[in-house]
Structure formats: structure tokens, C-alpha cells
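pinned: reference chain
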Amino acid sequence: MRGRERALSWHREYGFSHNKIDAGDGGPLGRMSPILVGAGQFPHRLVRQRFVAEAAILDAPTRELISAKMREYGRAVGRGVVALPRRPRTPPDAGVA
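pinned: its C-alpha cells
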């Protein structure tokens, strides 16, 4: 559905993030590049049910990994942790002598 695109991302070191995709349409400069912007809580149950119903074209290991991550996110939300803790970013010049 155009205008409602979302991204649930997971990184082994940084945890989860849920974002809307700002398509970059319009504005004074015309069409801009799409960017991710914060979207709040992810409707994991609804999306997981839809994913299971439509993911038959994916190979089993990929399908299970994605489902497992959505379940993990749901458990984190159930514990009151909307996202897993993120590691502080290392400044670009860190470690440079």
C-alpha cells in the first residue's frame, strides 16, 4: 500500500529499529531520495500473520529467521522493551592516531 511502507530492521549488535519510509516526494527541490524515519511500535502480530501467509516463495531458513525475529521483537515489547538496546556509535575518528 503506497505511503504506508515500513521497515523492521535487526542488527546483531544494535538490535531492532522500526521505521517509516519517507519516499522523498515533493518539497521545493522536487523528488528526493527515500529515507527511514522513526515509526514507533511495530504491529508484530498482524505483520507476522500476514508474512506467514504470503512467504511461501522464500526458502525455509530465510522465512524462519524473519519469523523468529518478529517473535523476538514481540517478546521484547511484552517485557516493555520497545527496542533492544543499541550500542553507542563509535566516532569516525576513534582509534586514529
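why pinned: The first strand starts at residue 6 and ends at 11. Residues 4 and 63 are 23 Å apart (CA to CA).
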